[in-house]
Design brief:
The chain is mainly β. It has strands spanning about 1-5, 10-15, 25-35, 45, 50-55, 60-65, 70-75, 85, 95. It has one domain. The strands form 3 sheets. Strands 4-5-6-7 form a 4-stranded antiparallel sheet, with no helix packed on it.
């Protein structure tokens, strides 16, 4: 199982989880770096059959990363404020709002 976490410092971390509670063994497998201006948790999700990692931003943006190599594919700017993506993994629409 893969777990995506907004790390509150410099982006998103992807962990591989094995075992069952209390013996969970999270292993960091990849990071998706972006600037964090305000230390608040941001919503993170995956889309396109797990090929994309999408994150809301504290700077009014939504970032789309390539899951395979961590590359930032697109940064969508919406204006000022914090935005969180609401993603339907089976669709091609990624609405966001504050």
């Amino acid at each position: 199982m893969t777990l995506l976490i907004s790390n509150l410092v410099n982006g998103i971390d992807s962990y591989s989880i094995t075992g069952v509670s209390p013996g969970l063994s999270p292993k960091l497998i990849q990071s998706f770096r972006h600037s964090v201006h305000v230390n608040v948790p941001l919503q993170v999700t995956s889309a396109m059959q797990g090929n994309w990692v999408i994150s809301g931003g504290d700077d009014g943006s939504v970032r789309i990363f390539d899951q395979r190599n961590g590359e930032l594919l697109k940064c969508l700017r919406h204006g000022e404020g914090m935005w969180q993506p609401d993603v339907n993994p089976s669709s091609y629409l990624w609405p966001s709002g504050s």
